[in-house]
């Protein structure tokens, strides 16, 4: 009986033991053949520009796992040949590049893509980017950047999907799907990279690389969810962030990289440092030297070292000294090999030639549609837009005809000469005479010498179209501004154009919100683009001439003044929410200290932004009914269905994005006055009514508690379905 029992148990265990995943079996097999040096070689990522003999030698010796920035497909294939055919184990390289919002066909910067509130167009854009980039041999992009960004001074807000956690999650997932498809081994699939992990957008004073202090509760409620969504979407890789978070640089953070990413989330993808971020732990004052930095990064479960040479120079000694275990090395190499197997690089390491890989008409059309949907109509007095019965336009301003600026930051491979600028787009129109005069040579141009020519052009035209904003170089990495007003003499240009009395349409092209209240007041209409890419010009021509209707909505708050920043809609109510506001110029002389009230606002700005998160107009108008709830009581195991009627009461068929917000009125930790929990972009014909439907569950209402548990608390909630984060009358429901 005893033997039968034992064998029976063994058979049962065998039957229950899951057959090991074939990829894991291949990894085991390969790992068992690798020397320690070869394992460490896989953890080394180098800048692969050019095909130097020295680089080939390092590849041949198995000292390189990945190359970044080589985009000549012949060079890529030759480097790959050396790895596959001349190294001892023939492990293929993975080639990476920053393909952030397009490779050759450039889409709106991610902040502009967020302004579309359309994950489908974002996914379509990422798909185009992957098709173009993989034709160059790139199979790994360092995108999406899903850092919640609430500070317009920070240059990298341009690369994010804005200030909201939910939007960063939704758009990040859409981008990942577009890059990776559901078959990472497809030759047009590209591994995505969720970055920068984590909290980078909280850099103090909006200054890049600056320190961040983020309480764990806030980290879990605001900054981590977009990354968790990326894990759930199967994002193949993650990247560390440059910042220290509460004193520990992310690259050395066991809390982030082991506790959260590996233990809590069970992530089995590859974690790479940012460029040199391992070495930067020395100036951070966290590591004494490169060997110390390599030790701390390895023991913080960072798999691959981008350009610090820390692993390749020191890991072997660290293992021999017992400071880093070979088990740690094996875990890292498993993650790297797993990515290469999943990409199919062992079976298909080379890039086949692709005919006509770039700028295909369908790619450009997708980019134009994304640019159209990213454009936000902020103002349209007297319905000056869309133009009608116009025979001549003055196209002026420093961004009216500059291909390199309209494609924005992080466009390594975008070709400015391929951009179609607003001036070019208008010149292609029939029956419209274009009088072009930039007035200023570039956005920072302080010389006013050219303004009179722009004014003269304006006087000859029916309407003035003035293209202003920021050159591309004024946003992106390390491009932070303490003053976020219009640079140069642009404000003076607008003032003098206004003085002509001609209808004035401002078109802003920028990498961030700008404090432009005065200039916007001078304009009759304002269209806003966060650098909208190759097809920004045709998109604007269609919108201004009425072939398309604006549908973009702000993914960030537009402050009146930089002193209001950081400013975001999902703020707390405070104990003294703003009321009885007395602005600085309205304070009586010798007013008594408490005579003008004591609530939460700035004397010189009030408490409201210039434009709120979620705001955007159309050429038509929409009327929202009150939300109707399936039940006013939600059970912990239940849900509520929300319906709301949205009527197009104007004369243009158009998109509208209905936004679902909730507020937890009383909780054991103070909760924001509103939080976006859903949105629907719907096409509504003039005069017709659409019904938008949402489902709200307790999990949507959950927040992190002091014990770090995340769950929803019973109590009363407000719920809105509205056109932006300030409009709407809430309905109440109770969570039991
Ligand atoms: C940069 C950026 C990161 C980028 C990497 C590679 O410094 O911080 O976002 O992917 O280096 O270029």
TrEMBL record:
<dbReference type="GO" id="GO:0009251">
    <property type="term" value="P:glucan catabolic process"/>
</dbReference>
<dbReference type="InterPro" id="IPR017853">
    <property type="entry name" value="GH"/>
</dbReference>
<dbReference type="InterPro" id="IPR019800">
    <property type="entry name" value="Glyco_hydro_3_AS"/>
</dbReference>
<dbReference type="InterPro" id="IPR036881">
    <property type="entry name" value="Glyco_hydro_3_C_sf"/>
</dbReference>
<protein>
    <recommendedName>
        <fullName>beta-glucosidase</fullName>
        <ecNumber>3.2.1.21</ecNumber>
    </recommendedName>
</protein>
<dbReference type="InterPro" id="IPR026891">
    <property type="entry name" value="Fn3-like"/>
</dbReference>
<feature type="domain" description="Fibronectin type III-like">
    <location>
        <begin position="656"/>
        <end position="725"/>
    </location>
</feature>
<dbReference type="Pfam" id="PF14310">
    <property type="entry name" value="Fn3-like"/>
</dbReference>
<dbReference type="InterPro" id="IPR051915">
    <property type="entry name" value="Cellulose_Degrad_GH3"/>
</dbReference>
<dbReference type="InterPro" id="IPR036962">
    <property type="entry name" value="Glyco_hydro_3_N_sf"/>
</dbReference>
<keyword id="KW-0326">Glycosidase</keyword>
<dbReference type="InterPro" id="IPR001764">
    <property type="entry name" value="Glyco_hydro_3_N"/>
</dbReference>
<comment type="similarity">
    <text>Belongs to the glycosyl hydrolase 3 family.</text>
</comment>
<dbReference type="InterPro" id="IPR002772">
    <property type="entry name" value="Glyco_hydro_3_C"/>
</dbReference>
<dbReference type="Pfam" id="PF01915">
    <property type="entry name" value="Glyco_hydro_3_C"/>
</dbReference>
<dbReference type="Pfam" id="PF00933">
    <property type="entry name" value="Glyco_hydro_3"/>
</dbReference>
<dbReference type="InterPro" id="IPR013783">
    <property type="entry name" value="Ig-like_fold"/>
</dbReference>
<keyword id="KW-0732">Signal</keyword>
<dbReference type="GO" id="GO:0008422">
    <property type="term" value="F:beta-glucosidase activity"/>
</dbReference>
<keyword id="KW-0378">Hydrolase</keyword>
């Amino acid at each position: 009986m005893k033997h039968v029992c034992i064998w029976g148990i063994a058979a049962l265990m065998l039957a229950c033991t899951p057959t090991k995943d074939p990829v894991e079996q291949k990894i085991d097999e390969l790992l068992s053949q690798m020397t320690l040096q070869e394992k460490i070689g896989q953890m080394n990522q180098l800048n692969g520009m050019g095909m130097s003999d020295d680089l080939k030698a390092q590849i041949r010796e198995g000292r390189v796992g990945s190359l970044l920035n080589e985009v000549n497909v012949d060079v890529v294939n030759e480097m790959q040949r050396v790895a596959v055919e001349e190294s001892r184990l023939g492990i293929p390289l993975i080639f990476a590049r920053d393909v952030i919002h397009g490779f050759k066909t450039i889409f709106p910067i991610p902040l502009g893509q967020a302004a579309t509130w359309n994950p489908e167009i974002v996914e379509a854009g990422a798909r185009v980017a992957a098709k173009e980039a993989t034709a160059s041999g790139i199979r790994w992009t360092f995108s999406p950047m899903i850092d919640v960004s609430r500070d317009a001074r920070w240059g990298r807000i341009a690369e994010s999907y804005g200030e909201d956690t939910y939007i960063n999650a939704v758009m990040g997932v859409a981008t990942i799907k577009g890059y990776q498809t559901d078959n990472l081994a497809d030759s047009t699939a590209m591994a995505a990279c969720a970055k920068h992990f984590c909290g980078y957008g909280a850099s103090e004073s909006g200054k890049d690389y600056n320190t961040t202090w983020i309480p764990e509760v806030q980290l879990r409620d605001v900054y981590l969810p977009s990354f968790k969504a990326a894990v759930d979407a199967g994002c193949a890789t993650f990247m560390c962030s440059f910042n220290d978070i509460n004193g520990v640089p992310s690259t050395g953070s066991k809390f982030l990289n082991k506790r959260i990413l590996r233990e809590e989330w069970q992530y089995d993808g590859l974690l790479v440092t940012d460029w040199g971020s391992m070495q930067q732990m020395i100036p951070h004052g966290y590591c004494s030297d490169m060997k110390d930095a390599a030790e701390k990064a390895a023991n913080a479960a960072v798999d691959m070292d981008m350009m610090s040479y820390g692993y390749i120079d020191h890991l072997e000694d660290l293992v021999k000294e017992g400071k880093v275990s070979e088990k740690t090395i094996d875990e890292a190499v498993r993650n790297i090999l797993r990515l290469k197997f999943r990409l199919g690089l062992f079976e298909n390491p080379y890039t086949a030639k692709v005919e006509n890989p770039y700028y295909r008409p369908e790619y450009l059309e997708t980019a134009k549609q994304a640019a159209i949907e990213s454009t936000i109509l902020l103002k349209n007095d007297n319905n000056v837009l869309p133009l009608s019965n116009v025979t001549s336009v003055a196209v002026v301003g420093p961004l009216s005809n500059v291909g390199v600026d309209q494609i924005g930051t992080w466009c390594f491979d975008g070709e400015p000469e391929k951009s179609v600028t607003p001036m070019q787009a208008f010149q292609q129109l029939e029956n419209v005479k274009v009088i072009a005069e930039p007035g200023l040579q570039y956005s920072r141009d302080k010389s006013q010498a050219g303004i009179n020519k722009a004014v003269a052009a304006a006087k000859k035209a029916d309407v003035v179209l003035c293209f202003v904003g920021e050159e591309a170089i004024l946003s992106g990495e390390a491009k932070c501004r303490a003053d976020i007003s219009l640079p140069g003499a642009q404000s003076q240009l607008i003032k003098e154009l206004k003085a002509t009395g001609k209808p004035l349409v401002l078109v802003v092209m920028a990498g961030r919100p700008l404090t432009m209240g005065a200039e916007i007041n001078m304009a009759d209409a304002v269209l806003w683009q966060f650098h909208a890419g190759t097809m920004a010009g045709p998109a604007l021509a269609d919108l201004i001439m009425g072939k398309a209707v604006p549908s973009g909505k702000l993914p960030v708050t537009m402050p009146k003044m930089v002193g209001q920043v950081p400013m975001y809609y999902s703020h707390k109510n405070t104990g003294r929410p703003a009321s009885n506001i007395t602005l600085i110029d309205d304070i009586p002389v010798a007013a008594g200290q408490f005579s003008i009230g004591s609530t939460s606002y700035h004397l010189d700005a009030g408490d409201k932004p210039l434009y709120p998160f979620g705001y955007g107009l159309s050429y038509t108008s929409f009327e929202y009914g009150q939300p109707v709830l399936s039940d006013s009581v939600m059970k912990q195991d239940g849900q509520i269905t929300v319906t709301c009627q949205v009527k197009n009461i104007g004369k243009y068929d158009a998109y509208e994005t209905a936004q679902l917000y909730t507020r937890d009125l009383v909780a054991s930790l103070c909760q924001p006055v509103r939080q976006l929990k859903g949105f629907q972009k719907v096409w509504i014909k003039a005069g017709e009514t659409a019904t938008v439907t949402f489902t709200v569950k307790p999990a949507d209402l959950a927040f992190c508690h002091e014990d770090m548990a995340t769950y929803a608390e019973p109590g009363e909630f407000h719920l809105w379905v509205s056109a932006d984060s300030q409009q709407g009358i809430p309905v109440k429901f109770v969570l039991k």
